[in-house]
Amino acid sequence: MLELDRVAKLYGAKVIFKDVSCAFASGSVSLLVGGNGAGKSTLMRIMAGLSRPSAGSVRLAESGPRAEGPRLGYLGHATFLYPGLTALENLAFWRTAHGLRLSGAGLSAMLERVGLAAHAHERAGIFSRGMAQRLNLARVLMLEPDLLLLDEPGTGLDAASLALLRREITAARQRGACVALISHDLAGDAPLADRLLFLADRKLAYDGPPAAFAGFDVPAGAITDTGADREGGICCA
Ligand SMILES: Nc1ncnc2c1ncn2[C@@H]1O[C@H](COP(=O)(O)OP(=O)(O)OP(=O)(O)O)[C@@H](O)[C@H]1O
Q: Which GO biological process categories is it annotated with (predicted)?
């Protein structure tokens, strides 16, 4: 679905990463981990076409079930929600912006799916962080994206919402979507993933099965949160 070939990103003279080559297949979940500032969000923005690589290339497969090409769903740090619009109006706005054929009932069903049915007519501006993130998730999921890129989607979510998020990721994979997920919760998210990518030392330091990452020799100081999880042996059931 998506191929990166020797991708590098520099800001001025500062190298964020270089020589990142990897392919992301349909019907798979890739978990992207690394310490703060390792370049995960930067890499995902390149994958989403929101940022240009300084070197290398990104190729998105053009063939697939849709005549117009693969559909991208990107959930980044910004929610892209309009605070003055209700939850339902926000979804209606994005439905129109994306040219989706989704009825009012379909939009309500989306809100139900993310547990916001009771808040359909409340303004997004008064939503808690977790509620806003749920609505943001609905905004992305209603696209039924072929390529689903999620940058720390669990931020602000309670346990029930996290479970919902993980069910949706698994469902997207099962319907054939290519999913990439940035997370600091290796223990929680590794079981979802077919593959783990670890950014450290300005390169892709590990690309392989999540289970084998437990035995990978992480460079000292390169990682903190996921390192603790690895020592606990939680991630690699
Ligand atoms: N526009 C920019 N100009 C200069 N440096 C930038 C810019 N955007 C990001 N960076 C730098 O790139 C590096 C990687 O940032 P990025 O947000 O990709 O890290 P991350 O791995 O997602 O971190 P975190 O886990 O904290 O979210 C950081 O050192 C950051 O300061």
A: cytochrome complex assembly
